[in-house]
Amino acid sequence: MGSVDGDFDSRLPALKPVRTKRSAENGRKPEVFEEVEEEEPLSPIARIFHEPCFNIYVMAIAGCKTRINVDVVKANLGRTLLRHPRFSSLQVKDTKKDGGMKWFPTKVDLDKHIITPELHCAADDSPDKVVEDYISDLSKTSIDDSKPLWELHILNIKTSDTEDVAVFRIHHSIGDGMSLISLVLACTRQISNPKALPTLPVRNTAKNKAVKSKGIWWRIKLVWNTIIDVLMFAATLVFLKDTVTPLSYGRKTGVENGGKRFVYRTISLDDVKLIKNAMNTTINDVVMGVSLAGLSRYLNRKYGGMKEDKGANQKKNNLPKNIRLRAALIMNIRPLPGLHALAEMMEKGSKAKWGNWFGCALLPLDVVLHDDPLDYIRQTKATIDRKKHSLEAVVTYSLLSMVLKIFGAKAAALVYRRFFKQTTMCFSNVVGPVEEIGFYGHPITFLAPCVYGQPNGLTMHFQSYSNAMTFALSVDEEVIPEPHELCDDLEESLKLIKDAVIEGGVTKNNSTKWE
């Protein structure tokens, strides 16, 4: 889902470089900070992510076409990422403010942040499985808070589709997912032009401009939709829970601390654009439609105990009626700073907007089997269009900020956790570069962002990159023991929808716009 428009810039402090003065080395305590000119407190939202019930990490998995040179990465990180104040500061208790935390600048030892494990394949294991197991084990651990809360794992192993794999692990208190992914992208450059930053797809702004010319009835519907959505949000916090399904049963209390398994699959972005243009929708609509179709196929097979699944219109309907299944959406409520602003901040120490600024929204998913696969796209388009005509994310952000201010971070974290636990899954869609890029000279094959620490049994992320799109699933194995089956269902659903578009003869030329 895209960001929700709103004028929040006036409320957002610019992130400024933290300047410090170090004491001379005395042989006992090197790099002790004697004077700190500026120590910024953690934002209230950032403190939420330190609560045990909502301790969330963002991970970005990247495949590379060549082996990664660790020395080259270290040399470049010192000139880029480490110049971002959040990546070179500790998060420590503020003794002057009870329960508060602050950013404390420190000297970063890259040897403690860049990790190169020795991975070996057993006779019965594939390299892909070894990588999958390593990342899963990583999600069962936390980063030592004696250092800035980020790590880069360079696995030095060849898989079926890459020569090497790198995994960024960053604590969510450093920034929201979109900002963190944007910052990582700001450290990359185009393969065809090594001095140029990546190019992100052009968004269609005509719709946003047209909103200003809407009449009174449009505004009344906006207010009404917002009221209904906020009431549903409140009901979800109090009593309204999703139906127990094979996507949620078996989930135990505290499962967010038990680790996740991450699986991903890369599909053709041209196929997604073909469907988008043929049906006059957005890429978000297509991605959600494919997700709904895949989830329906998966649930139908699980309910029916079927071993084979040869098409949504060729098998018995085993789905119970009136399944309540909803996706929790985390939506940015302020414009991102942009890759150029982030690059300048790292290169020149300039200011840039930063932080965790997001609201919550509920996306209902009507799990059914359609004879016409295109009905999944039509269905999700109608649902998303209705959600766009609401200020749910903005209002929920304001309400949760009020809870945070009045009752503190612990209470706000419990509210967030309750919201996610009452729903079946989380969903996000991230826009990526339109051309091939390199991470400090290493050409990237794919990008797959994901998170762990959330109470949901399933989280789905879609990331576009060049002419491909990768969907990454973060699953609780007690809930979804065979996540690759769900990947197969998603991939097969895309094929069925694409075939239906071609058979209908409604294809158009691919557009370069995201919407």
Give the fraction of residues assigned to helices. 25-40%
Strand order of the biggest β-sheet: 7-8-9-4-17-16-10
The whole-angstrom Rg is: 23 Å
> What's the shape?
globular
Query: Total number of helical segments?
Result: 13
Query: N- to C-terminal separation?
Result: 11 Å
Structural class: alpha+beta
> What low-confidence regions span 5 or more consecutive residues with pLDDT below 50?
1-37, 309-314
Q: How many strands, which pairing sense, and closed or not: the largest β-sheet?
A: 7 strands, mixed
Number of strands: 19
**Could you state the oligomeric state of the chains shown?**
single chain
- Proportion in β-strands: 15-25%
- Mean pLDDT score: 84
Give me some keywords for this one.
515 residues, alpha+beta, seven-stranded mixed β-sheet, six-stranded mixed β-sheet, 13 helices, 34% helix, globular, disordered N terminus
